[in-house]
Amino acid sequence: MIQSMTGYGRATVTFQAKKIHIEVKSLNSKALDLSTRIAPVYREKEMEIRQMIAKALVRGKVDFSVWIEKDDTQASMPINTAIVESYYKQIKAVSAKTGIPEPQNWYDVLLRLPDTLGKPEEEEVSEEEWTAVRTGIENAIADLQAFRRQEGAALEKKFHEKVDNIEALLKSIEPYEKSRVPKIKEAIVKGLEQIPEVDYDKNRLEQELIYYIEKLDISEEKQRLTNHLKYFRETLDEDKPNGKKLGFIAQEMGREINTTGSKSNQAEMQNIVVKMKDELEQIKEQVLNAL
């Protein structure tokens, strides 16, 4: 069963006072194109996160995000009490020595001075916390994979429908293919009869007609296209990523359809070829999204 490269997954992990959100999205791409936005506290784990994603998702343009939601008490900036006290004493001493009035609003002045608001202590990720976050990442990836499988099932149904349509159109060419031999002969003979005082060798005419018909014969193209359609179906049933392979098969199908069109000398046959091209074009558009 094929998978789509389009997907979305998310997970939320609660660890102590933290609420950790994980989100992963993917679109189609020829290779794995991974972009990450990781909360600073987990940056040291970026390589491990990338390896997890690459192993699970294989291909696609992937956007990964992990961020932390904290309550207001956790997010507030701590006041450096010792530095504030030191500034307060120094300002009072300068005021007493110089006669400069002390500030009326001490807090406005003190809290604007350097280093009075301390930086939050750098957090270290414990093994327990990382285990919880890692589980959340695995859950988000699994959620995305489930989405990919669901989209892949719809793709597979569409592919089978289009292949069946091409196969039916290919069979519908046969009546026109068989009837064109007598029509070609009739047209040539009529053309010769319209030329006055021309005597032609009927045996030579038959030889030239056979040569002409052989050039227009599409038996090999039909057989190769039938084989490609069969191979496309077999590839759909493979239990592994096969989007690129399906794309290559679709290209080969296109070659046979184009050659059939170039050999079709009847409007009815050319109309059928145009319909086959339309069905194939829809396959090519959708196969770009297959993993």
TrEMBL record:
Residues 2-156 form the Endoribonuclease YicC-like N-terminal domain. Residues 174-289 form the Endoribonuclease YicC-like C-terminal domain. Coiled coil: none annotated. Keywords: Endonuclease, Hydrolase, Nuclease. It holds the Pfam family YicC-like_N. One of its GO terms (molecular function) is RNA endonuclease activity. Its cofactor is a divalent metal cation. Belongs to the YicC/YloC family. This is YicC family protein.
